[in-house]
Every structure is written in C-alpha cells, then in structure tokens.
Write a structure and sequence with these properties.
- The complex is a heterodimer of chains A (113) and B (117).
- Chain A is mainly beta and 113 residues long.
- Helices cover 0% and strands 48% of the residues of chain A.
- In chain A, strands 1, 3, 4, 8, 9 and 10 form a 6-stranded mixed sheet that branches.
- In chain A, strand 5 (55-56) and strand 6 form a beta hairpin.
- Chain B is built from no helices and 11 strands.
- In chain B, the strands form 2 sheets. In chain B, strands 2, 4, 5, 6, 9, 10 and 11 form a 7-stranded mixed sheet that branches. Chain B has a 4-stranded antiparallel sheet with strand order 1-3-8-7, with no helix packed on it.
- The termini of chain B are far apart.
- The model of chain B has no long low-confidence stretch (mean pLDDT 91).
- The chains are: A mainly beta (113), B mainly beta (117).
- At the A-B interface, strand 4, strand 8 and strand 9 of A face strand 5 and strand 10 of B.
Amino acid sequence: DAKTTQPNSMESNEEEPVHLPCNHSTISGTDYIHWYRQLPSQGPEYVIHGLTSNVNNRMASLAIAEDRKSSTLILHRATLRDAAVYYCILRDKGGGSNYKLTFGKGTLLTVNP
Amino acid sequence: NAGVTQTPKFQVLKTGQSMTLQCAQDMNHEYMSWYRQDPGMGLRLIHYSVGAGITDQGEVPNGYNVSRSTTEDFPLRLLSAAPSQTSVYFCASSSGTVYFAGANVLTFGAGSRLTVL
C-alpha cells in the first residue's frame, strides 16, 4: 500500500503562509493525493485533492512535485481557525476491485496569534 | 442535507456488553467506512463497504461486525465490548461504486465517543 510521511507537528504565526509537506515516494501513477484536516473535537473535513497538476481552492493550494513523490499543502494566510491536524492520504487499493483509504497520524498545526 | 449522521454521540458500556453504532447518510453515496481514533494513533480503518451487500475489512477489524443492507445505513456492531475498544469512532462516506475513484471526497460524521469500563 502506498504510504505517506508527514512531520508530526508544525507551528506558524497568524496571517503568515504555511507550507505543510507530505512525502509519498511509493505513489502509483493513478493515486490521487488528498488532504483533510481535523479541527479539535470534530470529524475530519476535506481540504483539497489533486493528481498531477497544482490545485487551488478557497481553502488552500496543493503543490505536487513533478515526480509526484511529494506534495505541499499551502495555507496562504493562516488564521487561528486553521489550527488542526492535517492529513495527507493516498487512495489505496484493497482486495479485488475494492478500495480503502488509510490515514496516518497527520501534522498538528499550531497557529500563534 | 444532513450529510453523515452518527448516533449516539456518547456511550458508556461495561465490558462484555454489546451495542451498535449507527451511521446514516443522505447523499446516495455508495462507499461507507468506519474509523476509530485513539490518542497518538491517527485514524485507523475498521471496515468499509463499496455498496449494499458488500463489506470488507480494514486495518483493525477484530471485535467489530458490519453489514450493509441499504445504501443509506452502515451500522457498526460491538458484540462483546472490551476496554481496548474505548475510542472515538467516525463514519465516512463517498460517492463511487465498486470502481471506487481516487478523486472522490470523503464526508465524515461528527463522531461517537465510546467508553468501555
């Protein structure tokens, strides 16, 4: 199964950009890269996803390396509400035609006022 | 839309008791799954389903049963609760069928906190 590696924690200051890295050196050619985040005492929520090209949405940007072995989630201006655990995950192939998504421990982002 | 609804939000059980965590979604999603989250362990997949009548095991399936009789519901059963099953449980769903597309986004419920004494 394709795995991801993220730093355990990162710290940022409010209104500064944040770059959250993710390594996925064993990614397959058809795996999508997804990012989710989990605010305190809540369920995870979708942030962004991509395949090969960089992606932007209202929450964040996703920069994908040319060899796809790493990616970076970019929060352009961190706010206190962005303090959360951020998960980088890949689509895993389960048995037969079934698929499962597995999450690692993620990166705990602390935002300082 | 309600999205993914989990009940109960909190539950305390004694060792050996049984219970069912309910999960329902109103988005006509084919894919549903259960995760547990323990401190320092991230999210671990228990069971998942790619459609009615189809289920499969995740990383930590022991001690849990699931079934999928309808598209909307995916209950998680603990037949004989153990203290090791004390955790926060999350249900998640996604569009996509057995040809699950890696682009499909997961929607999570708010979680069910279970304590087994």
